[in-house]
């Protein structure tokens, strides 16, 4: 028997954001096996990808929020993971996104991250949010900037090293 918490489902014009489930393992295994995951701790072995899936599900149970699996509403294809992230050692709560191979350049990260941030500011009452972006990940920096986030400086993380901090606009500015 699998225990999964009941998680909010968000929808946008093109996307559905739903909680991670064991059925997502094959797509996560493929993502974490690829170089595409290099900015988020990959590549990882299948065991490492499974542990990441468990972490994603567990984050929801421990924090009451987390990252959603993002699917195209029209096709049902899984395009990535986007959501709210704040594990131990993080400087503060983050709006985070990872897109899977073949789904970049369509505005999906921006669309899903905006929905996640709206949820954080609305339902969860967050007063602020950041996004952490590796300096070499220019595509991710552009997503942060499209969301109105402003580069604030660098933090040093024990696993990821020096990471850029992008501060999102306050909730009032996003309405």
TrEMBL record:
Pfam families: Acetyltransf_3 (PF13302). PANTHER family: GNAT FAMILY, PUTATIVE (AFU_ORTHOLOGUE AFUA_3G00765)-RELATED-RELATED, N-ACETYLTRANSFERASE DOMAIN-CONTAINING PROTEIN. It comes from the Bacteria. Gene3D superfamilies: 3.40.630.30. InterPro entries: Acyl_CoA_acyltransferase (IPR016181), GNAT_dom (IPR000182), N-acetyltransferase (IPR051531). Residues 15-171 form the N-acetyltransferase domain. This is GNAT family N-acetyltransferase.
